[in-house]
Amino acid sequence: MGGQGRPGHNHGMINNRITYRTADGTRIPGTWRHAFIRNGGTFFLTDLVMYADGLIDCWGLVTLEEFERKLRCGWVATEIPEGARASAGNLAAWKFGEPSTRLTPELMIAEVRDTIERLNGRPDSAARCRAAVDVFLADRTEENRAAVRAAYLAVPETRRRYVLSDMDRKDWPLKVLVAGPGAVVEGWWTGKPVSQEDYDQAVAYFEKRARSAAEASSRVPADGPATPYAPAIHLYQSYPQERRDDPGTVGLRNDYPAPVDFDGSTYTSVAHAYWALSVTDPAVRAAVAAADTSSDACALAAGATRREGWEQARTAVMTALLRAKYTQHPDLAEILLRHR
What we know:
The chain is α+β, with helices and mostly antiparallel strands. The chain folds into 3 domains: 2-119, no CATH class; 125-213, no CATH class; 255-338, Orthogonal Bundle (Tetracycline Repressor, domain 2). The chain contains 11 helices and 11 strands. Helix 3 (125-138) packs antiparallel against helix 4, helix 7 packs antiparallel against helix 10 and helix 10 (310-328) crosses helix 11. The relative contact order is 0.08. Mean pLDDT is 87; it is low at 1-14.
C-alpha cells in the first residue's frame, strides 16, 4: 500500500532536492545526497535518500539506528582505500588514486539527523546554534556564551562555515564570539588571540543581524508539512500468515492476521478490509475479503472498479480500520505504544 517517487536530479543545495515516497496513502517528503556504498569490493556512487519520518534509503529502507550500523560496518562508506574500484552505474567506472574524504561515520550521521530535522520544519543544529546566540544577546553572561559554544560544537564540522548563512563571512563572527577575547580562533591563519576590538565587532555584527531580522516581515512557507512526521517504525516484508504469541513489530503490519470487525463484517486483516472496502461490486468485495493473503486481496481489488470518492475517503477508512484493530486487539496496542 505504498510507493516511492523516483528522485530527480539537479545541482542545487540539498534542501532544494525534493523527492517523496508514499506510505498508506501519506506522502512523506524527502531529499538526498551522494554517497558511496561498498558492495563486493566495489564502491558504488549512489543517492542516499532521507525521509521526514526518519527512514533512509541506502539500497533498502532502514531506520536511523540501522543506518548508523550500515556506516559502522562500511556498507555506506566514509573511507575509501587507494586503488579501490568504483562504479557510477552505466555512466563510468574507475579506480581511486589518492582518495581523500572529510566524512566520518559520526559526521555523516549528524548531517543525516540535521537533514531529517529540516524536512520536518524543526530546528537543526545550526538553527539551535543561532537561537543560542539570540539568548546570549538578550542576556550577555558567560554561561550563555558557553551555551553558544556548546551549540556551535554540536554542528557537524562540515557545516561550520555557513551556520550564519553568510557566504562572505563564513561564520567568522560566530567563531570569534565562541572563542572570546584572548583565545585563538579555529583556523585563524595569523595564530593571534582575539582582541577586545575583534570581539566587540563580532557582537556588533549579531546586534545588526538581530535588528534586520526584527524589521523583516515574517513569512509563512507556502508548502511543507504543517506538523512534524512521527519517527517511523520499519516493518520488514515478512508477510505473516498466522498469529504469534509475541509478534513484536510484525504485529503492527496492516497485513498481520488480526481479524477486524468493521461495519458489520469481519476481515482477516486491516489490509483485507482496506482493499475490500475500496471496490464497488459486492461480489468482488466478498472475494477480496476472503482472499488467502493480503497480496491476493490487493490483486483482486486492483482489477475491480474503485468505489466512488475512494481517493478522498481512503485515509479516513484506513484510520478507522487501524483504530478498530488496536481497540479489538489490546496486545497489539501495547506493542504500538511501546514504539510510538
